[in-house]
Write a structure and sequence with these properties.
The protein is of the alpha+beta class. It has 17 helices and 12 strands. It has a single domain, classed as Cytochrome P450 (Cytochrome p450, Orthogonal Bundle). The strands form 3 sheets. Strands 2-1-3-4-10-7-5 form a 7-stranded mixed sheet, sandwiched between helices. The structure holds protoporphyrin IX containing FE. Protoporphyrin IX containing FE (HEM) binds next to helix 13 and helix 17.
């Protein structure tokens, strides 16, 4: 590891891409196109970590189901890979063991308990509540002449849905939102995050106690009572699960909505078509997931034995990173891969991952995005970008693909 490689993507051909500049995030696909021409998988230094980077969809799917690839960065093998190839500070957040960083059989157990809760009526029947939440935000938004669509709509909506899922009382929702904002905010100070984290932890512990005594029809009650062969989540696992749901379910949904609205602003003809025919919105959401999905890279994985992937022999203990953004625009897989075409039939993608870690919240995310867009199209007849498309700035994150801000004008021109 060379210290100067932090904040850079360095390829085997010694091409250097600065990850701290806007350029890469303005159009990461320009880089991926060049890489893909040279092969499906590449030896790279990615922000200081020596890794293999997958840019091809078939190879990505193979990596997702390869039994000799692990997600458990907290295991001795995972720690050895970090010591050898870098990434210690990156994976510090994975110290709390949760299912995203677990392998079978621990993963299988946690996943089956949470999957049961997600399949419950409490989640399936959430549509009308999400609609009411979207409408309450639009009541305020529609009174404004200009707004940041992320701050004023895309950001609060999934938090309010999570409050609904957990049965957070109305009086506590402002606190809940404030803590979430701090806990998920990469630029908050360590002190701020620790303090919000402690308040949050205390609150969730109390909420679990209340729901244990008085279960209701919500996801939290389902998680508390979810049972698998007499097994259930213990207190520590429940709290870790709640934090994981917040971390994995919030920013992702925010940016799916944000990226979709950006496309509607860019392409008013499509916006008109969807407004006239809301039944087309789900197919549009799928195309946004494929073309501009909110998760840029899957979370880190490493090999536990030598494997062959995409024609390369890879030793044990090497990191494998999967670019979902690249794989979802693979020209071997899609006709005109860069075009947002809701009518395309080759529309299956891996924006929610693949294999055993496939997103547990996928159905919920699709429902939230579809309702959010439908209500927005219905309630806000005239909306345009406040500024220049070329000047929009993207977040400098390899994990989340999303805008730093989305300023809009709401009054008719
Ligand atoms: C896993 C994407 C929304 C909860 C994943 C993974 C992806 C993903 C790619 C797999 C990561 C990997 O294998 O490295 C997305 C996208 C979303 C979204 C694009 C929104 C558009 C949500 C929501 C929730 C959620 C709303 C919950 C409320 C989870 C959890 C996992 C996960 C718990 C871990 C599953 C496991 O390890 O078995 N998601 N997600 N996600 N997602 Fe989502």
């Amino acid at each position: 590891l060379r210290v100067e490689d932090r904040g850079r993507l360095v390829t085997a051909a010694n091409e250097i891409i600065e990850l701290t500049d806007d350029d890469f995030y303005q159009d990461p696909h320009a880089v991926y196109r060049r890489l893909r021409e040279r092969g499906p998988i590449h030896r790279v230094r990615l922000d200081g970590v020596l890794s293999w980077l997958v840019v091809d969809q078939d190879v990505a799917k193979q990596a997702f189901v390869e039994p000799n690839i692990s997600k458990r960065v907290t295991s001795p093998e995972g720690q050895a890979a970090i010591a050898k190839h870098g990434g210690a500070e990156k994976f510090a957040g994975a110290v709390n063991e949760n299912m995203l960083f677990a392998d079978p059989p621990q993963h299988t157990r946690l996943r089956s308990l949470v999957a049961k809760a997600f399949a419950s009526r409490a989640v399936r029947d959430l549509g009308p509540r999400i609609t009411a939440i979207a409408d309450s935000l639009l009541d305020e938004l529609s009174a404004k002449e200009s707004a940041d669509l992320l701050d004023d709509y895309a950001f609060p909506l999934p938090i309010m849905v999570i409050c609904e899922l957990l049965g957070v009382a109305d009086d506590d929702k402002d606190d809940f939102r404030a803590w979430t904002e701090i806990v998920v905010n990469e630029s908050a100070s360590v002190e701020e995050r620790t303090s919000a984290g402690i308040s949050f932890f205390t609150y969730l512990t109390e909420l679990i106690a209340v729901r244990t005594d008085n279960p209701r029809e919500d996801l939290l009650s389902e998680l508390i009572i979810a049972k698998d062969d007499g097994d259930r989540l213990d207190q520590q696992e429940l709290i870790s699960m709640l934090f994981l749901l917040l971390a994995a379910g919030h920013e992702t949904t925010v940016n799916l909505i944000g990226n979709a609205v950006l496309e509607l602003l860019r392409d008013p003809a499509t916006a008109e078509r969807l407004r006239a025919d809301p039944i087309r919105v789900p197919a549009f959401v799928e195309e946004i997931l494929r073309c501009q999905g909110p998760v840029h890279m899957a979370t880190a994985r490493f090999t536990t034995a030598p494997i062959t992937l995409g024609g390369h022999d890879i030793d044990a203990g090497e990191f494998v990173m999967i670019s979902l953004a690249a794989a979802n625009r693979d020209p071997r897989r899609y006709l005109d891969p860069d075009g947002v075409e809701p009518a395309r039939t080759d529309n299956r993608h891996i924006a929610f991952g693949h294999g055993i870690h496939y997103c547990v919240g996928a159905a919920l995310a699709r429902m939230e995005a579809t309702i959010a867009l439908n209500r927005l199209l219905d309630r806000i007849p005239a909306m345009s970008l406040d500024g220049d498309f070329a000047e929009l700035s993207w977040r400098k994150s390899l994990l989340i693909r999303g805008l730093a801000a989305l300023p809009v004008r709401l009054s008719p021109p």
